[in-house]
Amino acid sequence: MSHDSDKTRRLFENLPDAFAYHHLIFNGAGEPVDFIILDVNRAFENLAGMKRTEMIGREASSLPSDFIQDAAACLKVFGEVALTGRHSSIDQYFAATKRWYNILASSDEAGFFAASYRDITERKDAVERLIEKEARLRTLVNLSRDGIVIINQEHQVIDANRRFCEMLGYSPAEILKLHTWDWEVIMPEHEIRRVFQDLTKINENFETLHRRKDGSTFAVEVSATGARVGGENAVICVCRDISARKRAEEALKQSEAKFRTFVENASDIIFTIDRQGNITYISPNIEKISGFPASEYEGKNYTAFIHPDDVSSFLEYVRQCFETKREQQPLEYRVRHQDGVWRWHSLNASITDAINDEEMLIGISRNITEHKKYEEQLEYLSFYDQLTGLYNRALYEKEIERLQNSDQYPISLMLCDLDDLKIVNDTQGHQNGDRLLKACADLIKASIRRERDIVARFGGDEFVAILPETDEGTCKKNSKADPEQPRALQ
């Protein structure tokens, strides 16, 4: 018996999780008010930052006040456990280790309880990051200073951000009823249909006029990119109101003084360089944008501030400008700011008439870092089903196309759907139907474990798994139902 007791004690002392045994203290009304520490293991000593001898026999209230983040909440849980015998848990932060723990309390004798403390800091941090990421994604579109609209093949609005609605003067509900020609001034409906027959092939920047709800018009700069959204052809347009810039350009023609005022206060960077790329002028607002004063740039070669991977494309762009004397497509490149961060800029340039017998390139550079980030977010959203977190049909079709020319044969497909989902939606509500879809998605993901396998939501209640390098026999074996899985859906 002594040997068994010693063995049990050693196991208790060497448990990886912190463990403690307590006696609950009640007041005259039978309410739990404190608890006494009866025993702890080594892991609990590390958690508490105190020796076992310093804690045994002491009341919890006598420990440092920051020992547990929310002592009252813990006491409530411990009291219920000690009185009812039911297990319960609570997450708490411990100042001594600066980490989060899940406390699981249980009781086999009235008035006493045992508590195990498992470190969940990494899990907490991961959940917090996911919450922050979702919040950023939700606000990214609506915080954009540019209007953003997604249009389907019928040229009707699928979605639009708040700024686009404000630019046209429509409510979000009204904007979804519009077609491109309802706001496009220059191009009529028949021409829009003719020019943009296949939206996925669109990838261009252009300027045009948009019409507001009240009939007034304004100039815009549009960046249009074709994509597959929700399994159908679409175009994503980022629209920037350039009315102020157009007015400024007209004013520049009338007065050199107004030109200098505009240059020094514009949000874009204006600079001139010679054929060798040496900066002969850069607008003073460069300091506000990059952190470096204009004097840091002038007289130096522009490539000194460009990311090494972008230097060759920048030099080629400059060469084309000087040789063709024609406006080139905007160049995107990275520029180093004073804080050491490389930020994306977009450059438009033209060649001036010879000044002192030397031609100059005039460039207008704009910080497009946020725009680039948004494009990346849109690309992510275009390939994921937001309800289940699985890949969507667009990604599935793209992966099938890729595998057709791969060496990953044999390739197997597993298809499944939910029976009577409509009955669930009709009788128990769409919220429960969505919950059922998510549970099904989780089960499928849990059963398809290889990194190269793809699981996608194919339709409303349909799922598909692509299994490269998998023959029919292996696929059939994997597709056999697990008798425990239906219970998980109940």
Structure description:
The protein is an alpha+beta fold and 490 residues long. The chain has 4 domains: 118 residues, PAS domain (Beta-Lactamase), CATH 3.30.450; 101 residues, PAS domain (Beta-Lactamase), CATH 3.30.450.20; 119 residues, Beta-Lactamase (2-Layer Sandwich), CATH 3.30.450.20; 105 residues, Reverse transcriptase/Diguanylate cyclase domain (Alpha-Beta Plaits, 2-Layer Sandwich). Helix content is 37%, strand content 28%. It has 18 helices and 18 strands. The chain has a 5-stranded antiparallel beta sheet. A 5-stranded antiparallel beta sheet has the order 7-6-10-9-8. Helix 9 runs antiparallel to helix 10 and helix 15 packs antiparallel against helix 16. The radius of gyration is 32 Å and the shape is extended. The two termini are 46 Å apart. 21% of the residues are buried. The C terminus is likely disordered.
Under CATH at level 1, the class of the largest domain stands as Alpha Beta
Calculate Rg over CA atoms.
32 Å
* Beta-strand percent range: 25-35%
**For the record, what is the CATH homologous superfamily label of the largest domain?**
PAS domain
The largest sheet, given as strand count, sense and whether it forms a barrel, is: 5 strands, antiparallel
**Mind telling me which CATH architecture of the largest domain this is?**
2-Layer Sandwich
Please give the order of strands in the largest beta sheet.
2-1-5-4-3
Low-confidence stretches: 485-490
**How many structural domains?**
4
Number of strands: 18
Number of helices: 18
